[in-house]
Design brief:
Beta-lactamase, alpha+beta, 5-stranded antiparallel β-sheet, 8 strands, globular, binds glutamine, about 300 residues, 12 helices
Length: about 300
């Protein structure tokens, strides 16, 4: 079967599914998303884009934004980032505060909320929130080769109004001197980065800089691309990262909007969207879809 036939087949299989997981409700603006949405797109290193279902419908990328902010932060301050954030899977929920006290305010990795808030603090270093967000959006637009990518302010404000957990994390980080700005400022930026919207097509295209193949947008060094992929496979799905690596065998980053960005090093970037989540906050059908795609395409980083 061709890639397009495989995508169409996966889409057909997902359409009638009733067990779709639960849409995130802790961000009120996300609670009204139609759980039956499903999109899938693949951008290949040879310049093709394939898609199926709602692949043209923009959705809230949420924590997938952490891949782009990490890329920016590494580009800005390089390895000194690792003085403020670790590189180990947390084995805890994405918004957990448990380890932060025991580990003196150094978050386990840049993809759990605490770590991502520190990364956002880094990209804010010499700019205002508006400038940092403009830089981030421009980075993503360049990566996707598409100017039509925006932040949904209503989603950002909705999360700000209910984001007590993230405020707790930010204040805790600040108490350990691991936040250089006022929590309000860093979190305002963080909520807006999470509220970026992209379709599966746009997201797959935006992910091409992580493929490490000739002809792909070159936004950070090859070495950094490898390292970000390593963090995606070990930490990209929080306390379900081991399970994702086992089932899919590829680096991936999920978001509570129901999207997942998956990288097939040297070959392709894949984006999937199904808003229903597992208990760990990862897209239920999205994970199944990329598992099926990887199996049928014989894609794995494990040979
Ligand atoms: N896992 C996620 O997508 C979480 C992102 C969300 N904006 C939060 O901070 O809670």
């Amino acid at each position: 079967m061709s890639i397009q036939e495989i995508l169409d087949q996966i889409h057909r299989e997902m359409l009638p599914r009733r067990d779709r997981g639960e849409v995130a409700t802790y961000i009120p603006e996300l609670a009204s998303i139609d759980v039956s949405r499903f999109g899938l797109a693949v951008a290949t290193a040879d310049g093709q884009v394939y898609s199926a279902g709602d692949a043209g419908v923009p959705f809230s990328i949420q924590s997938i934004s952490k891949v782009f902010t990490l890329s920016l932060a590494l580009g800005k301050i390089g390895n000194s980032l690792w003085e403020r954030v670790g590189r180990e899977p947390s084995g805890n929920a994405f918004n957990s505060i448990l380890q932060l006290e025991r580990e003196f305010g150094i978050p386990r990795n840049p993809f759990i909320n605490a770590g991502a808030i520190v990364v956002t603090d880094v990209i804010l270093a010499s700019s205002s929130p508006a400038e940092a967000l403009a830089e981030l959006i421009n980075f993503i637009r360049y990566a996707a080769d598409d100017a039509n990518i925006y932040i949904n302010d209503a989603v950002a404000l909705s999360e700000k109004a209910t984001g007590h957990r993230n405020f707790a994390l930010a204040h805790f980080l600040r108490s350990f001197n691991n936040l250089t700005h006022e929590p309000d400022l860093t979190l305002g930026t963080y909520f807006h980065q999470c509220a970026i919207e992209m379709s599966c097509r746009q997201l797959a295209l935006a992910g091409r800089f992580l493929i490490n193949a000739p002809g792909m947008p070159r936004l950070i060094s090859r070495d950094q691309v490898r390292r970000i992929n390593a963090l995606m496979i070990t930490c990209g799905h929080y306390d379900a990262s081991g399970d994702f690596a086992y089932k899919v065998g590829l680096p991936g980053k999920s978001g509570v909007g129901g999207g997942i960005l998956v990288i097939v090093p040297g070959t392709a970037a894949v984006a999937v969207w199904s808003p229903g989540l597992t208990a760990q906050g990862n897209s239920l059908l999205g994970t199944e879809a990329v598992q099926s795609l990887a199996q049928q395409m014989d894609w794995s980083v494990f040979g």
